[in-house]
Amino acid sequence: MTRRAAVIGGGVAGITAALDLAERGMSVTLAEVRPRLGGAAYSFERDGLLLDNGQHVFLRCCTAYRGLLERIGGTHGVELQRRLDIPVLAPGHRPARITRNGLPAPLHLAASLLRYPHLSVRERLEIGRAALALGRVDPTRDDETLGAWLEDHGQSARAIANLWDLIALPTLNVRAADAALGLGAFVFQEGLLRNASAGDVGIHQLPLSRVIGDPAREALAAAGVDVRLRWRARGVERVSGAFEVRGERESIAADAVVLAVPHGRAAALAPKELRDGLEALDGLGSSPIVNVHVVYDREVLDEPFAAGVDTPVQYIFDRTPAGWSGSRQYVAVSLSGADRESAMPVDQMRALYVPALEELLPRARGAEVLRFALTREHAATFRAKPGTRALRPAPATAVDGFALAGAWTATEWPATLEGAVRSGHAAATVVLAQLDR
After folding, report:
1. What is the pLDDT of residues 216-271, one digit of tens each?
2. What is the pLDDT of residues 298-351, one digit of tens each?
3. Whether CATH 3.90.660.10 fits 287-381
4. Is domain 4-41+208-284+393-436 annotated with CATH 3.40.309.10?
5. CB 3.0–4.6 Å: which of 13, 45, 409, 412 could bond 424 by disulfide?
6. How far apart are CA 11 and CA 80, in angstroms?
7. In this structure, are strands 305-308 and 85-89 parallel, antiparallel, or unpaired?
């Protein structure tokens, strides 16, 4: 008889697990409570404009996520830099750039950092010593913050804010001052210190629904996966050596289950034998991401994306739809670790960010703001603080045939698209091995 699998959750972790299980000949049902696939990476329409909930980027070293895009046919909607190039904007300054040359890591960034104008000469020299030391840090360390470690290694508050947080904040979704040292070390080692090309930046040129959600649904259908959207799982029970996934009106019978939902929902949906242990996941906390969407009546940004220093603007992206008529431009400001901004009303955010953008982008000063909107993910990721490592569970559980997936599981990666895809592969591997055994 064909073995049956149920995947609860239609984010990239669940999509990956479902494709892996179907590829191994299982009859797979994927249940997602939302009306779309993609999980935390999705688009929605507002007043005729397709908005992404967040500006998700990836790096060349994100091999699992890039592999998923190839698998589902989503590569047409992304662009990967040939060579790392991050424009850095600051009020009253000409744009600077962090780029790599042809030297091996970690020397590939040395020339760019020695010219970096937003730090003093002494601060630039101290960066090299700290980077070499960070390359030797054990990524399993979970006993102090990245910020405290950087201070102990000669990094000033300005150096941390104007350089280290440019990488730490968007990847960890907290500033270095709050981030676990091991996770921070992993990000810098994997993305910048071991391989010169690993940190080349990939951006989503098309809306996320057209890169992930829509292509994934087609790929799942082609693989024979039964995708059920707007299907709310109420819990999983073991019945006669198998599983029953209870819904609001019907149940799904399965020989194996992959639970790929946010960590805050996992305990309530898991079999009763696991619920007490999974309640510890509350300790992972959450960290918000806010996006500011602005449409101008003219072009104000020349770059596909840019970072900001000495400004409330962290990263800004050109999101103008292809073929958009006229000279209008749509830009999105991505704010990671946005605890303060997630609670601010729209009018207050507009009063803060429209002038901030005018300080960074000279052509915005005379431009008319045609649209201003916010998107907020209050629990976008777990909070990558010290002590997190011990709370992140392995994909395998004490119940054979039941596995966990999600960027919050023990992937070694922070809460990124790459970590989510890796977790999906790991969960599928676990249940297949257990069923075979």
Report:
1. 999 999 999 999 999 999 999 999 889 999 999 999 999 999 999 999 999 999 99
2. 999 999 999 999 999 999 999 999 778 678 999 999 999 999 999 999 999 999
3. yes
4. no
5. 13
6. 22
7. parallel
